[in-house]
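Hi R.,

As promised on Friday, here is the backbone we talked about, encoded as structure tokens. Could you run it through your design pipeline when you get a chance and send me back a sequence?
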């Protein structure tokens, strides 16, 4: 880091912030062509820094110029020295209303004549405000500094500027350097602070100074850094000048500016959600935010940030979006190739459209060709052809030659099975809708509830967590329960208030919803197999579910539903051995 020295009786005064004697001289940059060394002085104990300055001698000179104790400039040396013998203010004195009268007219007039000079004056603390454009919003760990100020006083003057609209009266000031000291002094109960008033300091320079000063402390958050850099950029700074003033690399500066594009409010909202829902939303790191920069669109970046649940999920979403963008570019180029041949795109027909056959296919991720040669038998028929994109593969489709075909007995049997299976599945869907609605009625109170619901918990737990033949188990997710009550499968769209309504329900009703989500439309439709036969294994679970609901007062609206449920319906086809008997 540079040269270090213990400054007891040494060449440098103690730290103006905490009074520590151990001072460190730091160096940034090199003496290579086009790059100058930048020095600043830092207190090892509290981290207070002065700089950066191009010349070390200038930094030391500025450090030595700082007034320790900051006497009132309106008093002579003897009078100022006599203040040290005065008794400390009592609690009663500290509670007295502060004087907020403007600075003396004589003092004001003197500095009107030389407005560019910095004037030293003791200002009532009531006339000082933290700068509204200071990037630091939280002032943590100021107890030690407040104790030091209470004992020794403020050992370095604050730099302030007249607040807008108060340039004439000079009765209100914004702190440019020393916002943290102002907070600590307020906590220590001081009534006046030594200040350097900077007249005619442009807003751009104010922000630049505040950002630079804060950069020299390690507790400035990434959001505050990003906000500060964006302010500097808005006021005419460049990445290069921000780098020079803060000592941070240009790469780091660019990363912070990219972070500010996401919107400070959205990032803070994200961080609040990470704290509130720590089990679902894991805290993102700066590397995650840098990974997000791969997406050029700010809108898409914000959307990914809003949806990502953790670091790996964010990176997966970024990679998926980049892959989708790459495929979209490939498809644009391929569409031009197809248009030259006179072949149009039709994704609705898809890759298995009746009366068409696939004659060419290409994987998009492998890159699409710049030209396509069609087989001779399809040349001249391009206007009747189409191409489509299906699951990452491009297909070129052409009309297949129609051949008259006599249906065999197997064809007729297959058509009959398809017809029966469709009819049974339609009935099963209607049956599931009735059981689901009965559960919703119990939850809302539209149907009378059992006298002793706690007695149902064991059987409900069995029904909700039962492992089915395909190995599927229950997902106990309040969002899925809320989606069930809203009659939607899009559980990820559920709002906090929707989930809160379900969470307020008695436990046995939540368990009932959990069971209902197990015996959904898909579970009901497993009662019929591909050959339109009764599927006994999944039917057992659905039968248990029906019998349980029946005890609570449920019944199907049609008699045919019962024979579908128990497998005796004529719509089911018989197995060969069964049919022969």
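Update: got your reply. Pasting your designed sequence below so it's all in one thread:
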């Amino acid at each position: 880091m540079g040269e270090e020295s213990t400054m007891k009786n040494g060449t440098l005064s103690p730290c103006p912030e905490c009074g520590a004697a151990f001072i460190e001289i730091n160096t940034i940059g090199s003496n290579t062509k086009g790059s100058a060394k930048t020095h600043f002085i830092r207190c090892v104990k509290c981290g207070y820094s002065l700089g950066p300055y191009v010349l070390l001698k200038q930094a030391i000179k500025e450090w030595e110029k700082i007034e320790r104790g900051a006497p009132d400039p309106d008093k002579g040396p003897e009078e100022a020295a006599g203040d040290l013998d005065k008794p400390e203010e009592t609690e009663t004195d500290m509670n007295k209303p502060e004087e907020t009268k403007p600075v003396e007219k004589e003092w004001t007039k003197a500095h009107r004549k030389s407005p560019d000079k910095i004037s030293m004056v003791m200002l009532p603390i009531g006339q000082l405000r933290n700068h509204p454009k200071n990037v630091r919003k939280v002032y943590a760990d100021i107890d030690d500094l407040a104790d030091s100020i209470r004992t020794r006083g403020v050992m370095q003057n604050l730099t302030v500027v007249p607040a807008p609209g108060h340039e004439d009266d000079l009765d209100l000031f914004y702190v440019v350097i020393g916002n943290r000291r102002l907070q600590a002094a307020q906590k220590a109960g001081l009534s006046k602070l030594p200040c350097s008033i900077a007249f005619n300091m442009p807003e751009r320079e104010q922000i630049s100074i505040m950002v630079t000063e804060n950069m020299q402390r390690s507790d400035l958050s990434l959001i505050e850094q990003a906000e500060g850099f964006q302010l500097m950029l808005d006021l005419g700074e460049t990445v290069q000048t921000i780098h020079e003033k803060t000592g941070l690399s240009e790469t780091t500066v660019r990363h912070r500016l990219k972070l500010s594009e996401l919107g400070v409010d959205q990032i803070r909202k994200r961080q609040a959600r990470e704290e509130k829902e720590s089990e679902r939303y894991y805290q993102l790191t700066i590397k995650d935010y840098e990974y997000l920069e791969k997406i050029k669109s700010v809108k898409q970046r914000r959307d990914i940030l809003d949806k990502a649940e953790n670091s790996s999920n964010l990176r997966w979403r970024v990679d998926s979006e980049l892959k989708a963008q790459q495929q979209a570019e490939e498809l644009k180029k391929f569409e031009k190739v197809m248009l030259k041949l006179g072949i149009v795109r039709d994704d609705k027909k898809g890759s298995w459209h009746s009366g068409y056959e696939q004659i060419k296919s290409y994987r998009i991720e492998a890159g699409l060709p710049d030209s396509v040669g069609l087989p001779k038998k399809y040349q001249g028929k391009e206007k009747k052809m189409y191409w489509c994109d299906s699951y990452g593969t491009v297909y070129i489709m052409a009309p297949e030659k129609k051949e008259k075909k006599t249906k065999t007995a197997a064809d007729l049997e297959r058509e009959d099975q398809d017809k029966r299976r469709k009819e049974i599945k339609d009935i099963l869907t209607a049956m599931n809708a009735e059981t689901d609605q009965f559960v919703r009625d119990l939850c809302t109170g539209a149907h009378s509830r059992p006298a002793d619901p706690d007695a149902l918990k064991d059987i409900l737990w069995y029904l909700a967590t039962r492992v089915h033949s395909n190995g599927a188990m229950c997902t106990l997710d309040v969002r899925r329960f809320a989606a069930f009550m809203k009659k939607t499968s899009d559980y990820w769209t559920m709002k906090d208030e929707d989930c809160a309504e379900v969470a307020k329900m008695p436990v046995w009703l939540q368990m009932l919803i959990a069971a209902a989500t197990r015996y959904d439309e898909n579970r009901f439709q497993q009662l019929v197999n591909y050959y339109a036969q009764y599927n006994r294994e999944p039917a057992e679970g659905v039968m248990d579910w029906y019998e349980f609901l029946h005890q609570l007062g449920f019944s199907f609206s049609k008699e045919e539903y019962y024979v579908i449920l128990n497998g005796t319906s004529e719509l089911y086809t018989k197995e060969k051995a069964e049919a022969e008997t």
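One thing I noticed while checking it: The longest strand covers residues 356-363.

Thanks again,
M.
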